[in-house]
Every structure is written in structure tokens, then in C-alpha cells.
Amino acid sequence: MLTPVKKTRLYEEIVKQILDKIKTGELKPGDRLPTERDLALQLKVSRTAIREALRSMELMGLIDSRVGGGTFIKEMTLEYLMDPFAGVLAKNDRLIIELIEVRLLLEVEIARQAARKITTPQIDELDNTLAMMEKEIAEGGLGLKGDNAFHQALANAADNLAMMSITRLCGELLNSTRKAALEALGDLQIGVRHHRSIFTAVKAGDSEEAGRLMRLHLETAYQNLARTRQNSPS
Description:
By secondary structure, this protein is mostly helical. Helix content is 74%, strand content 3%. Strands 1-2 form a two-stranded antiparallel sheet. The N and C termini lie far apart (53 Å).
């Protein structure tokens, strides 16, 4: 049972109590919450406070409210937990640059593994991401959607569950470095050429060359970002 609320900010204490029930397993994904009326009676608060708490939890992605069907606990994943922070962290200049260092550790090995394991359908998928990138640039964009798709397709081709999970988990943060790197390029076609050369090495099954080219690509991004951040007004 939930206990009566005595805190001033009622909705926060309501959220905390429900979260505690989720943490202890008393409430599980898919469980239906009591009605607003029942929650208000259990907690001895107004239905207005209950609605405010439920609205807050829905915005946080913790619950799913279905019209006429009730309110249910949602499945929580690591990706969900990261997303609320990713947008804020992605605005930190130092973090953006240091994430390139993380990508050097991760994506160079991804390129090597992809070259060793890639299948014919995955080669076609990788090629399609390059076409997507080129089309975006031709239409006046950065080519970011194709860039992101290229790196995720490489991670999938590497066929390592941990690598795929990490790239998806940190997707928003990694994407922010790609956007910043593209913006720092004087010529977007340089980025296309880098990706095309990595693709050629991966397709040929040359793992060492794929790793070398990925390292060159990321080191160039690091240098460009460091220079633009240093020259930008504080």
C-alpha cells in the first residue's frame, strides 16, 4: 500500500512513491495503476495533485495513459534512461570534443570487425547510407541522417552485441558529435569521401585499412572541432 503524503510538493512525493514501487518490483512493466480517485484516497491528496504527478511521469516516459483504458507502467530501458540527459550533455563543448576520443576507441574497432564479418546484404545497406548522405548534401543539408545511418550500419555489421548496444544506448550523444563535426567541415564532400573510402575497405574485407581510415576520419573531426571551438567567441 502507498502511504499518506505529507510533503509540500505533493506531486514529487507521489512520483517518488510510485518509483519506489517500481524499483522494488511491486509495480512491473505492464501493470495498471489504480484510478486517479483510488490513488487520491490512498495518498490522502487531491486528484489535482495526482493528475500533476501522472502528467510528470508520462512526460518522463514512465507511464502510458490510454484513453478509456487506464494508466500502465512502461518498460524502462537503458536507452530511455540516457535520452533525457543526452540533449543537455550534447551542448557541452568539452564533452562534444572528448566524445570523439571515445569514438576513436570504439569505432576504429567496429570498422575492423565490420570488414571481417560484413555480409552482402549489409554491404548493400552501407552503400545505401552513403547514397542517403550524398542526397541530403545535394539538397542543402549536412548529410547527418546518412552519416548516423552509416555508423550504425557498421556497428551492426561488426556483429558484436555489446558494440551494437553501446552505439544505440549512446546514440543521441554520438549523433551530436557527428553533427558538430559536419558543421566544422569546410567542404561536406570531404566527409563523403572519408565515408566512401571506409566503405571500400570494409567491402574489400581489409580490416586494417578500414580501421586506419576510420581513425583518420575521426582524428580529422577531432582537429576540426578543436579548432572551431578554440576560435569561437566565449
